[in-house]
Amino acid sequence: MKRKIITVLVSMVLVLFACSSEKHEQVSVKETAPVTGVKTSKPVLEQTPLFYETTGYVKAKNTSIVSAKMMGTVEAIYVKEGQWVKKGEPLLKIYSPEVEAKVRQAEEAVQMAQKQKAFAEATYKRFEALYREKAISEQEFDDIKTKRDLALLQLKRAKAGLQEARAYESYTVVRAPQSGRVAEKKIDVGTMAAPGMPLFVLEEPRYQVVFSVDESLADKIKTGKEIFVSIKSLNYKGTVRVEEVSQAIDPMTRTFTVKGALPEVKGLRGGLFAEVKVPVGETKKLLVPSKAIFKWGALEAVYVVDRERTVHLRLVKTGKSYGENVEVLSGIEPEDE
After folding, report:
1. Are 82 and 172 in a shared domain?
2. pLDDT at residue 321 in the model
3. Range of the domain at 20
């Protein structure tokens, strides 16, 4: 027997429940007169998108770990976590008395070599004049020339030593290798730093949503595919495209990793929780108007009218909402009218 779903006043519901001493999944009320002036609607079996729903997290596309290149005590830290920095911007200063001493010695060596070079040049010019006048032998002039050349070589070596010392000195100031956000600071002032020790983690301002997908859907997830992402902490909802699809299946979870490119969103940072919906096909769902559903605590019901104009209260179980309609999982059939 075909029936019609109708929307009625809540007061009728209360009367029906007040008059009933037992709970039933279906309540029938015989009307003494035909039900009139009531708007009816048919359940609709509609083709709707089928989604694979999962959770993921936000990750910077590129992350840099900034490490120390020398040993020393952290003298100053110039940045804070969450701060944006530019490439080459100083992040931290390391104090090393050994490096300071090396630079000082190299500078003194250059000064000494410059004096020796100046003396050798002056001597060479005097002896060159004497050699032209045949006042000294060629051997004596060659000795002076050799000393001049040696002084020039010593100056060159001293300058190279100073350059090397200053290169070590430059390591005392740790600079950002790229522009980005300081995601993590791993050291404090007064701490001893050592070569290779991580000091900071920098994230560049491009982010991805990372999530896992069941292996059964491997043929449905391709690069360029649109997915729906929600980041509740930022009140963000949007459509992004799949950027990377891992070809490796995790043997423990039987899933593979997928990454989608996120747009620029204020407050975006690594580690944020995200909800992901991946379209994987279509399915048929039974929909009724949301206003036809009555709720009492955890119970949900609709009114159904048969051809004899008998009103039935039918308990139902609903699913997701689709605009002004809601999915009915159980309680009514597609042939009900």
Report:
1. yes
2. 80
3. 3-52+284-330
Residues 59 and 45 both lie in one domain: no
Residues 81, 179 share a domain = yes
Name the phi and psi angles at 255, rounded to 5. Answer: -130, 165
In a domain, 336, yes or no: no
Q: pTM to 2 decimals?
A: 0.60
Measured CA distances, 145 to 40, 55, 111, 130, 149 (Å): 115, 79, 21, 13, 6
Please give the single-letter amino acid code of residue 285.
K
CATH code: domain of residue 320: 2.40.420.20
Per DSSP, 334 falls in state T
Is 94 exposed, middle or buried, given 0-12, 13-18 or 19+ CB atoms closer than 10 A?
buried
Give per-residue pLDDT as tens, 192-227: 999 999 999 999 889 999 999 999 999 999 999 999
Task: Note whether residue 337 is domain-resident.
Answer: no
Q: Which helix (H) or strand (E) holds 309?
A: none
Per-residue pLDDT reduced to its tens digit, 160-180: 999 988 888 888 899 999 999
Distance CA 79, CA 85 (A): 8
pLDDT value for 18: 34
Query: Which residues are CB-contacts of 99 (< 8 A; sequence separation ≥ 6)?
Result: 70, 72, 165, 168, 169, 171, 172
Rounded CA-CA distance 244/210 in Å is: 9
148 contacts: CB under 8 Å, gap ≥ 6 = 120, 121, 123, 124
Distance CA 337, CA 334 (A): 8
Whether residues 99 and 142 fall in one domain: yes
Q: How far apart are CA 50 and CA 336, in angstroms?
A: 24
Q: Identify the band that residue 39 occupies on the pLDDT scale cut at 50, 70 and 90.
A: low
Whether residues 314 and 215 share a domain: the answer is no
Averaged pLDDT score across all residues of the chain: 83
